[in-house]
Hints:
Blueprint: H1 21-32, E1 37-42, H2 44-55, E2 60-66, H3 80-89, H4 94-101, H5 110-113, H6 115-125, H7 132-146, E3 159-164, H8 172-181, E4 185-190, H9 197-200, H10 202-214
Parallel strand pairs: 1-2, 2-3, 3-4
Helix pairs in contact: 1-2, 3-4
Amino acid sequence: xxxxxxxxxxxxxxxxxxxxxxxxxxxxxxxxxxxxxxxxxxxxxxxxxxxxxxxxxxxxxxxxxxxxxxxxxxxxxxxxxxxxxxxxxxxxxxxxxxxxxxxxxxxxxxxxxxxxxxxxxxxxxxxxxxxxxxxxxxxxxxxxxxxxxxxxxxxxxxxxxxxxxxxxxxxxxxxxxxxxxxxxxxxxxxxxxxxxxxxxxxxxxxxxxxxxxxx
Length: 215
């Protein structure tokens, strides 16, 4: 398994922006070193994964897109209250930004009900923090991506689209549209699932994805 840490994130280099989704898709292609693989992408990673499938189709056997979107005129944008929280804390040190904004990535009430788990996930996130300037470069790349139309109708790989209907980052309608537009796709909704549904209900998520990949 290859877990790609995008430019500006984790242990990857942190060059100055601007970044683009296309550049990050090419970074992922380089990481694959010519090997054909099942590819999963979440949120911005979903933008990257679908772009990888379009730019380098020979590398993608099956595609899993989680809580993501294809952009364009029908795109349902991030709720105003989420954007306001991001903007209010984006220039603060990573621990402050993460603590203020990360609860929005879960379904409403989840962090209150899972305080110890949330604290551990927060600590994991901050082990290799993303500098504010790199977060901003990624954020701007995402906005540029969704303002356009990704030609997902051209994706050839069998595709699984998963989305939670309590997602406060990328609204649920985007997942529905994405699955409708990709020819060889199936859609699995997660009722009550937030943006990080794969952490909230890991057993169900892993079963759904494993079944799709092994089918």
